[in-house]
């Protein structure tokens, strides 16, 4: 069956990074664009017509699976949620893989760093003596966590954060905005019983997850496709609580006594 190109179709100029772990570079393509299309449609058309081995990761094409993350004109974005209509027809559109993570091939990167960091955040500790279905929380506490639960794990915030974007050496010590947000969520959870087990989430945020590296530039918030206020609602409150704890006279006294007894 033949398809009839829409009368509003035009040819766009694309530059796409192609290569693998050994290196690569930008390749130029001229490709047809139709009304209503997104950048992922164009990448698929490239695969269908000119570059059948072009590697790209995607799944839902609906902004929900978080797999099609890449950089468009140098800005971290979802390929499936970036409309072609935001660019002028004359513009050259450059598509490159996420810069903060190692390339596997073409537009596909190895985002394993993020799964390592996810595993380093201790899980929610259920409150003792409260069974499933018996948890009760104030609605405002539910709403607070709910915002963070919208995360689709696209890792665009991780990619854009300057702490690791240009500083590979910081990756060991810094969890990145997505996982500092997870620590913040658990720390503000009214039912989390981590403290009863001796786990101080505020202290670990500073000492193990690198909260101090964040200088609240809000770049992570700007690229989040879910519109989560990562900096204002998670990172800044976590920093405030971590500092409060540091200057809390009772915590200070407790540390002194513990140190003397050591
Ligand atoms: S606000 Fe913090 S975590 Fe977010 S991009 Fe800036 S330095 Fe990174
Ligand atoms: S917080 Fe936003 S940008 Fe970061 S991984 Fe989640 S959805 Fe993506
Ligand atoms: S393909 Fe699922 S978010 Fe883009």
Kindly list the characteristics that best describe this protein:
elongated; five-stranded mixed sheet; Ubiquitin-like (UB roll); electron transfer activity; iron; 2 domains; alpha+beta; EC 1.3.5.4; 262 residues; Fumarate Reductase Iron-sulfur Protein, Chain B, domain 2; binds iron/sulfur cluster; binds FE2/S2 (inorganic) cluster; iron-sulfur
Structural class: alpha+beta
Shape: elongated
**CATH evolutionary superfamily of the largest domain:** Alpha-helical ferredoxin
What is the end-to-end distance? 80 Å
Topology at a glance:
Elements: E1 10-20, E2 23-33, H1 39-49, E3 69-72, E4 75-78, E5 92-96, E6 103-105, E7 108-109, H2 112-120, H3 139-148, H4 156-160, H5 162-165, H6 177-187, H7 201-207, H8 219-223, H9 230-247, H10 249-261
Parallel strand pairs: 1-5
Antiparallel strand pairs: 1-2, 3-4, 3-5, 6-7
Helix pairs in contact: 6-9, 7-9
The protein binds iron/sulfur cluster (2 copies) and FE2/S2 (inorganic) cluster.
Structure description:
This protein is an alpha+beta fold and 262 residues long. It folds into two domains: 10-109, Beta-grasp domain (Ubiquitin-like (UB roll)), CATH 3.10.20.30; 112-261, Alpha-helical ferredoxin (Fumarate Reductase Iron-sulfur Protein, Chain B, domain 2, Orthogonal Bundle). Helix content is 35%, strand content 15%. It contains ten helices and seven strands. The strands form two sheets. The protein has a five-stranded mixed sheet. The chain is elongated. The mean pLDDT is 93. The chain binds iron/sulfur cluster (2 copies) and FE2/S2 (inorganic) cluster (FES). One of its GO terms (biological process) is respiratory electron transport chain. Its EC number is 1.3.5.1, 1.3.5.4.
């Amino acid at each position: 069956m033949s398809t009839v190109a829409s009368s509003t179709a035009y040819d766009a100029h694309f530059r796409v990074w192609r290569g693998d772990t050994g290196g690569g570079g930008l390749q130029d393509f001229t490709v047809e664009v139709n009304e209503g299309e997104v950048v992922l449609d164009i990448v698929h058309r490239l695969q269908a017509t000119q570059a059948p081995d072009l590697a790209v990761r995607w799944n839902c094409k609906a902004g929900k699976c978080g797999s099609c993350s890449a950089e468009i004109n140098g800005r971290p974005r979802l390929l499936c949620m970036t409309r072609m209509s935001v660019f002028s027809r004359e513009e050259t559109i450059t598509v490159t893989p996420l810069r903060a993570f190692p390339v596997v091939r073409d537009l596909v990167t190895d985002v394993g760093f993020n799964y390592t960091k996810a595993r380093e955040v201790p899980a929610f500790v259920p409150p003792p003596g409260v069974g499933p279905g018996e948890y009760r929380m104030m609605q405002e506490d539910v709403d607070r966590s709910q915002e963070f639960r919208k995360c689709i794990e696209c890792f665009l915030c991780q990619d854009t954060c300057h702490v690791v974007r240009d500083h590979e050496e910081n990756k060991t010590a810094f969890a990145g905005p997505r996982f500092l947000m997870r620590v913040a969520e658990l720390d503000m959870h009214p039912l989390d019983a981590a403290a009863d087990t001796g786990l101080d989430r505020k202290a670990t945020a500073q000492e193990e997850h690198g909260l101090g590296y964040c200088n609240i530039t809000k770049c992570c918030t700007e690229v989040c496709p879910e519109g989560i206020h990562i900096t204002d609602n998670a990172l800044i409150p976590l920093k405030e609580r971590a500092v409060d704890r540091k200057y809390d006279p009772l915590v200070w006294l407790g540390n002194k006594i513990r140190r003397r007894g050591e």
